[in-house]
Amino acid sequence: MNIFRLCGDLSHLLAILLLLFKIWKTRSCAGISGKTQLLFTIVYTARYLDLFTSFVSVYNSVMKIVFLTASYGTLYLMFYKFKPTYDHNHDSFRILYLIVPALVLSFIIVHVYTVMEILWTFSIYLEAVAIMPQLFMVSRTGEAETITSHYLFALGSYRALYILNWIYRYYTEDFLDWITIMAGIVQTILYCDFFYLYITKVLKGKRLSLP
Amino acid sequence: VKSDEAHDEL
User: Fold this and answer.
1) What is residue A194's three-state secondary structure?
2) Residue A194 C-beta-side C-alpha neighbours within 13 Å
3) Chain centroid offset of residue A56 CA
4) Cβ–Cβ contacts within 10 Å for residue A161, how many?
5) B1–A111: do the CB atoms touch at under 8 Å?
6) How many pairs of residues across A and B have Cβ atoms under 8 Å apart?
7) Where are the beta strands (DSSP E) in A91-171?
8) For residues A42 and A27, what is the distance between their CA atoms, to the nearest angstrom?
9) How far off is chain A from B5, nearest CA to CA, in Å?
10) A191 in helix, strand or coil?
11) Which DSSP letter does residue A3 get?
């Protein structure tokens, strides 16, 4: 554990809690992509199955349980409790275009051919692109609520901080995992446009709207 | 690189 990894995790946790807070407080999931949330739930479920097979630390297990619970909770709020507020007309990205390639790639580029390892690799690849339906939705509606922007910023920062963590781990532990690094870089690049808008608009007190 | 090492990350 290093400072970049810890900040990354906390940023990830903040993002997930911000989203739940937004939905609960406004009693609405307007502007939030249910497809992205579904993809994240698939990601956590595929990756954290290792809760049953290996123990790393209390910190790790607790975080995994929180991420899983929060993602299923978000789905419950979006598709059940506040379903009438879900803006599905604008949430039209085809997620099979993300799931199928991620699945195929996880059979091609993987460290070890075991079920758990392929599921873990699939989760890494799928996570890299899981935000696309949400970004597509923002581009379709042309705007995002400020709290949604904060959510996206925290979520994007998490993997960017992980990249710093991997650089740090490379120099201090000689640790290098190209699967997570390449996927993490793709994931962070997808947020670049959004980061730019966030810094130039939201941080100056303006609402995020596209030109 | 053994993939196990990566699994200590979230």
Assistant:
1) helix
2) 27
3) 22
4) 21
5) yes
6) 34
7) 143-144
8) 24
9) 8
10) coil
11) H
Q: How many helices (H) and strands (E) does chain B have?
A: 0, 0
Cβ contact (<8 Å) for A56 and B7? yes
pLDDT tens digits, A125-151 = 999 999 999 999 999 999 999 999 999
The predicted complex's ipTM stands at 0.80
Closest approach of B1 to chain A, Cα-based (Å): 7
Structure tokens at A11: 């940023």
How do residues A54-64 score in pLDDT, each as one tens digit?
889 999 999 99
Nearest CA in chain B to A50: B7
The identity of residue A38, as a single letter, is: L
CA–CA distances in Å: residue A175 to residues A14, A123, B6: 27, 20, 9
Cβ-defined contact of B7 to A120 (cutoff 8 Å): yes
Residue A120: both structure tokens together: 């873990």
| Token duo for residue A73 | 């909770």
How far, in Å, CA of A166 to CA of A170, rounded?
A: 6
Distance from CA of A8 to the nearest CA of B (A): 10
In A, which residues are within 8 Å of B7 by CB distance? 50, 54, 56, 120
CA distance A170 to A177: 9
